[in-house]
Design a protein that fits this description.
- The protein has 195 residues and is of the alpha+beta class.
- It has six helices and four strands; from the N terminus they run ααααβαββαβ.
- The protein has a four-stranded antiparallel beta sheet with strand order 2-3-1-4.
- α1 packs antiparallel against α2 and α1 packs parallel to α3.
- The longest helix is centred in the first third of the chain and has 30 residues.
- The N and C termini lie far apart (55 Å).
């Protein structure tokens, strides 16, 4: 039973580690320290391996829990009602938690404030579109984090970050906001603009 608890603990740790690069921006936003958002972006290349280890460990634990027990001498000393931590219900909850952690990048944007706003600009000649190359983005949560921070600036018309391309395209009214202000807003998220 002790090895089962160790496997469950390891499963939880690998599931959290696999999602740490995507959880950090949300935690940073909640804590108000958005500059640490890209701290765990180095984990992203290892994410597929961590997911595979997590699933393998869960499969082993479930196999151990569901495999038929060997016939042994009937003993009155065994407990027919195991503790909750040793039950199938607990293992199901761990499996559910693990699934939520592994799927976190797919729904992380719900934790960021809505960036919908109405922007009115005076002249088309004041509109500027700039593409910034960004390092450290690893998932959709990173995109939403950058978009949310840049959209806080007055004069932003549209901002679209893309982690796969490693860029952010910003359409803004240069009479209300400058390139430098946009770069500072991106810097607040912890991601770096590549020159």
């Amino acid at each position: 039973m002790s090895s089962e608890k160790k496997l469950i603990g390891t499963t939880i740790i690998t599931a959290i580690a696999a999602s740490l690069c995507c959880i950090t921006p949300v935690l940073a936003l909640i804590a108000g320290t958005s500059g640490i958002a890209s701290t765990f972006s180095w984990i992203e290349p290892f994410r597929p391996y961590l997911i595979a280890i997590t699933i393998l460990l869960l499969a082993i634990v479930w196999y151990q829990k569901l495999k038929p027990k060997k016939e042994e001498i009937d003993c009155e000393c065994e407990d027919d009602n195991p503790k909750f931590i040793s039950s199938k219900k607990f293992l199901f909850l761990i499996t559910l938690f693990t699934g939520l952690m592994l799927a976190f990048p797919n729904y992380s944007e719900i934790f960021f404030p809505s960036d919908k706003k109405e922007v009115v600009y005076v002249s088309e000649s004041d509109v500027n579109v700039v593409e910034y190359k960004i390092s450290g983005m690893t998932c959709a949560g990173c995109e939403v984090h950058i978009e949310s921070e840049v959209n806080k600036l007055d004069g932003i018309i549209e901002v679209k970050a893309n982690y796969e391309n490693g860029n952010t395209i910003v359409k803004f009214d240069r009479g209300k906001v400058t390139n430098n202000e946009i770069e500072v807003a991106v810097g607040k998220t912890g991601y770096k603009i590549i020159e």
